[in-house]
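Notes from the 1:1 (GR / supervisor)

We went over the backlog. Supervisor wanted to see one worked example end to end before approving the batch request, so GR pasted a single chain during the call. The sequence is below; no edits were made to it. Supervisor asked that the structure be written out right there so they could see what the output format looks like.
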Amino acid sequence: MLRIGQAIDIHPLKEGRDLILGGVKIDHEKGLDGHSDADVLVHAVAESVLGALALGDLGAHFPDTDPKYRGISSLKLLEHVYTLMRENGYEIGNVDATIMAERPKMAPHIATMRENLANALHCEIQKISVKATRGEKLGFVGREEGMTALCVCLLEERR
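Structure output shown during the call:
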């Protein structure tokens, strides 16, 4: 049995916040704003897994009204999503994610992002794809107002 999930996550950029993507702290003058660390990449991956399992979205599991999630590492949320996936009898087939950000360059960080995601999902790094694209000066991404990430995942029933 196979299940497919897809997700998108969007956060605005804000001065005074660290930029965390894929669990990597990236040097930049602004960070993503949100209740947790606002890691759009990890949020999209987690929501794609939850979607494949028909278990709702991140807000249903980790409400932004709960102070215990204030500033939490999104990798910790993804580890909990991994536990839900295993409890439901599935494992990662593959994950394909894209970050949309005008700046900074993502290429130097993608290998570490893939490692972090593979570790949180307890799977081989070859099952995790992370890519990046720019907004080409178009829309909120191009104007550097925010960043977004898209993800699709395939889950396989555990044997």
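Supervisor's comment: The radius of gyration is 15 Å.
Batch request approved.
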